Amino acid sequence: MARIKNIELPGEKHTVIGLTAIYGIGRSLAETIVADAKVEPTKKIKDLTDDEVARLRKEVDKYVVEGDLRRDVQMSIKNKMEINSYQGVRHKKGLPVRGQRTSRNARTRKGKGKVVANKKKAGK
To answer: What is the pLDDT of residues 72-108, one digit of tens each?
Structure first.
């Protein structure tokens, strides 16, 4: 098993796909890293040599990933909340931040639906 940035990469997957297990690395960046490290993209991670893993590790170190990236994102969110920007206010209220509609859906941000009691019908 290869270990990069304290993340255990899944051994059964291709190198390009396995690298996406690292926070901050998507498909396109993974393909760039593999090409720069001169590693076969379709080679399984468990079949990589120590030299290839070292080259991958060296390439990944050039990018902001994992803990540093998580910290940067959290600091950006905290900063927006402190300056009371529109996005910061949405973060505080737990509502969608990027302009999505909330009249229906938005359950991921808003949480489980709140039950509204029915009003009794007026009797005759």
So the answer is: 999 999 999 999 999 999 999 999 999 999 888 888 8
Q: Any idea which fold 3-60 has?
A: Helicase, Ruva Protein; domain 3 (1.10.8)
* pLDDT tens for each residue of 45-67: 999 999 999 999 999 999 999 99
* Per-domain boundaries in the chain: 3-60, 66-109
Phi, psi of 82 (to 5 degrees): -70, -40
CA distance 23 to 71: 12
Query: Are the CB atoms for 19 and 57 separated by under 8 Å?
Result: no
Q: What number of residues does the chain have?
A: 124
The architecture that CATH gives domain 66-109 is Irregular (4.10)
**How far is it, in rounded angstroms, from Cα 94 to Cα 2?**
38
